[in-house]
Amino acid sequence: MSTPATSSSQATDAAAADTDAAATNNAVMESQGTDTDVEIVDVKRRRLKSVVWKEFSRVKINGVWKAECMWCKDKLGGETRNGTTHLHDHLKICQARACRKGLKQSTLRMATASDGTVSVEKYIFDQEVVRKELGLMICLHEYPLSMVDHTGFRKFCAAMQPMFKVPSRNTMRTDILDMHDVQRKSIVKYFQQLSSRVAITTDMWTANHQKKGYMAVTAHYIDDKWELKSFLLRFIYVPAPHTAEVVADVLHEVLVDCHLERKVSTVTLDNCSVNDNMMVKMQDKLPLDSLMLDGSLLHMRCAAHILNLIVKDGMSIMEKGIEKVRDSVGFWCATPKRHEKFEKMASTLSISYTKRIGLDCTTRWNSTFIMLSNALEYQAVFDRLALREKLFTPICPSAAEWIFAKEVCSRLKAFYDISELLSGTKYSIARDILPIPVTTVAFESAFSTSGRVISPHRSRLTPKMIEALMCMQAWSRADMLDSDAAALMTCIEDEEELMEENESTIID
After folding, report:
1. How many Å apart are CA 229 and CA 436, to the nearest integer?
2. Comparing 15-24, 450-459, 493-502, which segment has the lowest mean pLDDT?
3. Is 448 domain-assigned?
4. Which of 419, 439, 471 is the last residue in one of the domains?
5. In total, how many domains does the chain have?
6. Which domain holds residue 312?
7. Contacts of 359 (CB under 8 A, 6+ apart)
8. Which 8-state DSSP code applies to residue 151?
């Protein structure tokens, strides 16, 4: 006795064999008034390139060309002027074809509505839909493309849905590129029809393994519903050398490609001399009559980057004063046994150990602020352990060094709060008036002094593939912002932790 899965497989195999046979033997049959008197002519001579002709035959009846369905033998218009749309529509509703090919497996699944209610709905497995979701998952979470070739992943998919055929790495790459092309065309069409002005921000990224530079160009605008929006336009490769002329040409290419060359209000860039020269050249490339106040407001310097430069200069002076605090944290985080002893001492002193101590990342000054603020809460624990552990005694900061660390922490807090406002999910000015989620400055741009770095497994890919992955990730997050904001925040937090680990690895 055969199972439903076996029957479905047999039906699919039989249909595939029938389709291949029809494609091989498909011919144009010309009738001379009878059904048996036919003339077979090679299809290639007629250049019938549409895939629909694998399931139709062209027959000439009474001097009129007809398309005969190989499944139900129905005859439809087969003239060249008829096109093939009606033939595709027929295949979708052809009962004989559905019976031969086998119906898709139908099951029930639990669906959760936006209000939290759960309902049962009909579910039909679709190979193409699952492949699309797999591609989006790889883009969203920065998984390597090679994961589809992993034995464990394939076994997991087979256990979850035996009908799903896991695509290869090359197929997955093609799927992602195709999805990116389709989405990009719709974006270009959208901005072509947009009536409002657009503010542009740029971020330079680096691929360490290839020593290549990329520019992330983001558009900020108010749509027709008066909602504040932020959208990644391109993640485009910038050829070396990164001179003002080269960067200006790349940015201008993006604006022209998206039909925004006459809609730009401002361009916000990092505060450096190359960008200053680049914006001078951009004013010559853009139509002067389309710029506000003849382009005097076109160039905006990024406030978050200026804050970074200020903090970077200040930290270079204060680094020596907090070295012992950093060494103390590193000593008690070096091994699990030491960390356990630190936690036990906090409990002995009746100090709640809610904030775990941890080393900072030297290129992210916000992590230095967090390290200092957490260490200061456990100053008594450090001092007590210095009396008991001989190895730690010379490392423990003195009273003066603790006071200096507290002073540094208070100074950093002011910059930390300002940077959080700039990189938050709401515009600080409109926070109490317009509760509109939007990202003004990327988290990495607000706190990192080393620039933005592409993950190692992505930096080895081609520029076209990197752009597809980065853009699809940003666009997927934009969709999640409305549907599942909590899941989006979890995803971003995980990525920030991973980025800190990657930066620490690069520095080490």
Report:
1. 9
2. 15-24
3. no
4. 419
5. 2
6. 308-419
7. 326, 329, 330, 333, 371
8. H
